[in-house]
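Progress note, sequence design subtask.
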């Protein structure tokens, strides 16, 4: 029968002691605007990009009855994916998808948008 050698347990350093106390002090607080800029930089988001403007101005781009019950999820390969809160709203959006695409292309003609796909999430 094989006996396993037990390794001695190493003791973890306490989180705060006299030597490393200053290391754990919080950094100086930053403003909300600076934090927001850091997030945009980290995820490589350009607010000036027309594709991103669809997400920012969704409520102004479409009819209020559509905007109230849907939100854009992503824009990929010319397809705008929308999250809807009810199957009837998803059907309504699918029926009016051409008009929605035309209205978005009217404001942002440089955006590559060909069709809309709806998904339901309650």
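Output:
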């Amino acid at each position: 029968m094989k006996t396993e050698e037990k390794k001695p347990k190493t003791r973890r350093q306490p989180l705060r002691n006299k030597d490393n106390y200053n290391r754990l002090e919080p950094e100086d607080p930053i403003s909300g605007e600076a934090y927001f800029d850091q997030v945009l930089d980290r995820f490589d988001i350009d607010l000036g990009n027309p594709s991103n403007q669809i997400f920012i101005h969704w409520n102004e781009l479409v009819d209020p009855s559509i905007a109230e019950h849907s939100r854009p999820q992503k824009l990929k390969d010319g397809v705008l994916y929308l999250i809807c809160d009810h199957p009837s709203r998803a059907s309504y959006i699918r029926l009016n998808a051409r008009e929605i695409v035309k209205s978005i292309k009217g404001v942002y003609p440089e955006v590559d948008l060909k069709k809309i796909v709806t998904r339901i999430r309650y």
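The first strand starts at residue 70 and ends at 76. Work on this subtask will continue into the next period as scheduled.
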